[in-house]
Amino acid sequence: MRNWVLITGCSTGIGRALVPLCRLAGWGVVATARRLEDLADLPSGEDLRVLALDVTDGDSVAAAAAACADLRLKALVNNAGYGQVGPLELLRPEELRTQFETNVIGLHRVTNAFLPLLRREPGARIVQVASMLGRLSIPLAGAYNASKHAVVALAETLRLEVGREVAVILVEPGAIRTAFRETLARVWGDLPERAQGTPYEQVVAKHLQVRKERAERFALDAEPCARQIVNALNAGRPPRRVVIGKDAFWAAKLKALLPAAWWEWFLRRSYRMD
Predict the structure, then answer these.
(1) CATH no. for residue 46?
(2) Distance (Å, whole) CA 122 – CA 128
């Protein structure tokens, strides 16, 4: 019988790249997204199910778990999420709350809903997709930084609690190439207007270009990142932590080695905070 993996956030990016790679590796894939139309172009087959799944909606998550009850579900990849941007001083409480509702509460809700199914299968595993920003923080991404720090803490705690039954793999990618301009324009809303007349006006105005330049220099395509996740899914002894990307590796090393003042100077300069 085929082993199945459920993946959240399959409309774009890492989630979308995981679908064909997991199928090629012999997994049956339950591909999920908030809107089924975003999955309509996936090639059909006996090794694919598509489900509408909104991680912020308890009923949606419960329905997805019920729809998988007949499967030999051996893995869960919690990949759904997004990045809220903006200086903390200008960030509205509801924006921070929405960020956590998707990236943290949603991940927790999905994990708890599918744990009973995973416990049925020996060698089952959960992949929690965090970020290198779960170990360090950058300017103008405070909400996202905080959410990914929370994901790291939840993954490490979950491993201590259920790790002998279900392996917990923490994935920490660096920058991944995505449709950044379109995503940022949706997420930051009226932030440029809020920044006018504040010390952040020029920083916010230049932020899009700064992030684009850094993505072009350091970012990985989604597929190489997804390949490393598939390797972790297939490993006989699942790794506890997978750091993906040279930027993620070296940023963690630099933060550990540099004096705090030097590290903060480096980040301010890199993101043109001066």
Answers:
(1) 3.40.50.720
(2) 19
Tally of domains within the chain = 1
pTM, rounded to two decimals = 0.94
CA-to-CA dists, residue 21 to 29, 130, 142, 250, angstroms? 10, 20, 33, 27
Assign 58 to helix, strand or coil. Answer: helix
Quick: pLDDT tens for 99-132: 999 999 999 999 999 999 999 999 999 999 999 9
The answer to whether residue 144 is catalytic is: yes
Q: Are 39 and 31 in contact (CB under 8 A)?
A: yes
Query: Apex CA 216: angle with CA 192 and CA 169, to 5°?
Result: 95
The whole domain housing 159 covers 4-270
CB-CB contact of 140 with 271 (8 Å)? yes
